[in-house]
Amino acid sequence: MVIEPLHPLEHRVLSRIGKGDSVEKLCKKTGLKRDEVMRALQWLKTKKMISLHEKILEQISLTIMGKSYVKNGLPETRFLELLPATMGELRSKLEPQEFNVSMGTLKRQGEISVEKGVVRTTAVGKKRLKLKRADNLLAKVEGLYYHRLRGDERKTVDSLKKRGIVRVAVKKVRTATITQSGKKARATSVQGVERLTHRMLSTGSWKDKTFRPYNINDPVSRVAMGKKQPYRRFLDELKTKLISLGFKQMSGPIVEMSFFNCDALYMPQNHVARGIHDLYFIEKPRKGSLAGYQNVVEKVAKAHETGVAGSTGWGYKFSIEETRKLILRSQGTSLSARWLMDKPEIPGKYFAMVRCFRPDVVDAMHNAEFFQVEGIILGEKLGLRDLFGVLKMFATEVAGIKKYRITPGYFPFTEPSAELHGWFNGKWIEIGGSGIFRPELTRPLGVEVPIIAWGLGLDRQFMMAKGIKDIRYLFSQDIDWLREATV
Amino acid sequence: MPTLTFPRKDLERLTGNSVNKLDFSSIKAEAAVLGAEMKVELEDTNRPDLWSVEGIARQFRKKRRYKVSGKAGMVDARSAPKIRPYIAASVVKKLKLDDAAIKSIMLAQEKLDETVGRDRKVTSIGLYRFDKLEMPLVYSTTESDESAFVPLGFRRMMTPSEILTEHPKGLEYGHIIEEGKRFPIFKDAKGKVLSLPPVANSDDLGKVGEDTKNVLVEVTGTDRREVSRVLTLITLCLADRGGKIFSVDVDYGDRKETYPKLEPIKVRVNIGEMESLLGFKVKELRTLLAKMHYDIVSSKKEELVVEAPPYRWDIMHPVDVFEDVAVAYGFDRIEPRDPKVATYGGLDQNELLSDKVREILIGIPLVETINMVLTNPTFQRYSMNLETLKLVEIMNPMSESYSCLRAWIIPSLVELLSKNTHRDYPQSIFEVGEVVVPSGNYLGSDTKLKVSCMIAKSDATFTEIKKVLDALLRSFGKKYGVKRLSHGSFIKGRCGSVLVSGKKAGFIGELHPQVLENWGIKVPVCAFEIDLETLK
């Protein structure tokens, strides 16, 4: 057997390793850094000089939110302790966040009832308050191992975890043990000259040296890279394509007024998508000012009430108070509304690529926050055939798909409306919605020509391309994914 | 988006066609057959006429012209309750309802109560055994402890206030009428109670079964137009099950109304405008209009006057007819055309600026991240060792994790580090992104673009992060200074305001150990955050 000289790191680790040493222990024994020890262990393992073992433990820890609750008590407990009380009293004694969250959760779980503005504890709520199970568990949970908990405690921990109050970290404990051949190598290992130095070169002493041959097949540690966030990279590529197709970019505020997000788009004020289940409303102030937009507000109100340009309108009394409500932008179309009011170029093409917000229950397919890509094309004599042309262009040029279809769609602000579907992995997937803006939308904003509007749902395509199954991963805080995702 | 589930056979019976032959995309729906059941998702939120098996079948059948066969009675609404002032009613006779038909009508009723009716607040529907009633009917009000009756599913007489506190529907819908001192009540001429609208029907009069031949339909509500529309929809559903429609008068004292209203909807269609908006000449226009249930009442060379069925309230403008024509023509037959619109593309100024910043930071090298703007005050303030920080909070959060908008990015980056304490260091990260700061402007806040950088490792120093800041500002040709600042998130004496061209641009510092302890981070962390505006 030819014994190759060992790398200095290998030598150092091998000469000090014992039985069942953890990485931390080896760091101490050798004085090496963690990644140096890890590297040496990997190399030694391929040479079968050591064996590696791994144990997996699930350890519970408090998040920052959890720590604050340990100190102050869970918000729903504090809420229950204040009962019975009027809504006004509760609002004055609790932070808005605590009030809103507790009110919703406790109502859902049937722990409180609200009658004539007075909130009372139900029997279920009283039981909970008496036991304070969650509070007591929370106080002692830090550092415990999940597998050692009782069944009901696990349930409580699961629900606390969902709410972001505790986290369960998978902890891998690695240990290494020297093998027989490792012991042999330790006895016989030799070291050659490691590095060519400045001194050897200036004195010529390199001529008498033998250099330790490297194992050029050894895996290397990873170099620290700067990198674009993978989803941002995808959006960058998309915006480059849109610019090459002649689109100018629009931008706008995250906190919007209902006027721009809904009313200017001819969404009736009683529309189902305008309630608390579809829009996030702002706590303070509740309403904005439309003083700078009076003229256009009047026109939009008229379009809703009695119609414009040959339309009957929605036929209800338009409320200025409703239109002033402050919300989080729920659709990128709010930017189109702003741009159309601001004397757009005709012909013109505009796009937006912005964060939008909807109070969805967060799961693998829905996130409370997401990016929307959409745009408009203004021009004389544009028609449905042109809309189809645009969809075809998106299918082939932007989404890069061969097989697509266009079907009738419905959006409150377009007529006709169409949907674009692409054929992926054996099924049709919706990749865009589109239509021609209704005259009730365009006329009040001062535009006389037809406008084609489109929105692309490219998240799913990105997820498929990257093999991502969970939409929350687009905002992933997993640093190794950010570092290692392929481009 | 309404979803309906019903027996496939029922739809086939009503259309006289196999479901495989029906083109659901023409009604903007997606249909799936699941054994004997069928599930249909309807996209058009403006077509409540389609939210029933009968409504879907109606669209796939030859047009049926609904007629009123006669008068069936009257409702006295002179003392109608102020909190729920409108009522409409009709009678459908000679029905032969089977189990499937009854289930489907109940389903339609539920859908309409829930959607158009906003959970019975705006409208609610009641069905009754017509043969047990004595005309005229009376819609008025009652004291909460009077007008007791046996509500659906119960066996004893209950007063309205008992129903509100004990009956499941009372608990669910009672709040709608709770605010009035007197409750709405619907009785017949003899004083028998039909219902406590919109909460509960009488168990005796309000239970429609297979043996019911003649049905009274009633809708009450707060919106006169919606009340009339919902009545029309339910009446037509029953008529589609083979019944004959009879009208009912409603007497409000100062005026009289007759329901159901079945007048067609008239629209003028300019052919030139239509062809321009569709982008092609429509040869078989008459056939297409007939297919979508339009009647042509007069025609000139350039203009048609058409009548749509009485339930097509979604038609507000001729463009709605244009779309129906295109759908009937078939979207798959329409040839795409490249729009002749020549324009120059370009990025937004802020996007250009962001791209430059990102390029420089990636080259340093830092890893780019994007984090959510939605967060919570605990992260933004408490975790960062801050007592006060003005935040834009959400009135209706779905969870405590997402209850406000971030006013600064650094907490997002610290959160990221806290999730990666088991990963290799150094961790050098950044984000260019939006924050929202309360202000006095017309939206109550400003959306600002910021850049934040963070270096975490066992030997991270202030100097190191300042080098990054220096590289960034030098690249933009900006002169800058750092002025001592006291900030709860940073170690005292290791934090400063960044001044660019004399103006406050942000801050830089080494994070306070309390912050690191809060987040369970075991290495020193240095960071800065500046406003992109200052790089312009």
For this entry, give a set of tags.
heterodimer; A: 487 residues; alpha+beta; Arc Repressor Mutant, subunit A; BirA Bifunctional Protein, domain 2; 3 domains; seven-stranded mixed β-sheet; 38% helix; B: 536 residues; Phenylalanyl-tRNA Synthetase, Chain B, domain 1; Phenylalanyl-tRNA Synthetase, Chain B, domain 3; ten-stranded mixed β-sheet; 14 helices
- State the secondary-structure class of chain B: alpha+beta
Shape of chain A: flat
Number of domains of chain A: 3
How would you characterize the largest beta sheet of chain A? 7 strands, mixed
Output the CATH topology of the largest domain in chain B.
Phenylalanyl-tRNA Synthetase, Chain B, domain 3
Describe this structure in words.
The complex is a heterodimer of chains A (487) and B (536). Chain A has 487 residues and is an alpha+beta fold. Helices cover 38% and strands 20% of the residues of chain A. Chain A has 3 domains: 1-59 and 142-221, Arc Repressor Mutant, subunit A, CATH 1.10.10; 64-131, Orthogonal Bundle (Arc Repressor Mutant, subunit A), CATH 1.10.10.10; 232-484, Bira Bifunctional Protein, Domain 2 (BirA Bifunctional Protein, domain 2, 2-Layer Sandwich). Chain A has helices at residues 8-16, 23-30, 34-46, 64-72, 75-81, 87-93, 96-108, 123-131, 133-140, 151-162, 180-188, 198-203, 230-244, 258-261, 294-305, 320-323, 333-341, 384-398, 439-442, 459-466, 479-484; strands at residues 21-22, 50-62, 85-86, 112-115, 118-121, 166-178, 248-249, 255-257, 326-328, 348-357, 369-378, 404-408, 414-424, 427-437, 451-456. In chain A, helix 9 (133-140) crosses helix 10 (151-162). Chain A is flat and about 95 Å long. Chain B is an alpha+beta fold. Chain B is built from 14 helices and 25 strands. In chain B, strands 4, 5, 6, 7, 8, 9, 10, 11, 12 and 13 form a 10-stranded mixed β-sheet that branches. In chain B, strands 17-20-21-25-24-23-22 form a 7-stranded mixed β-sheet, with helices on both faces. In chain B, helix 2 packs across helix 6 (224-240). Chain B is elongated and about 90 Å long. The mean pLDDT of chain B is 94. Classes of the chains: A alpha+beta (487), B alpha+beta (536).
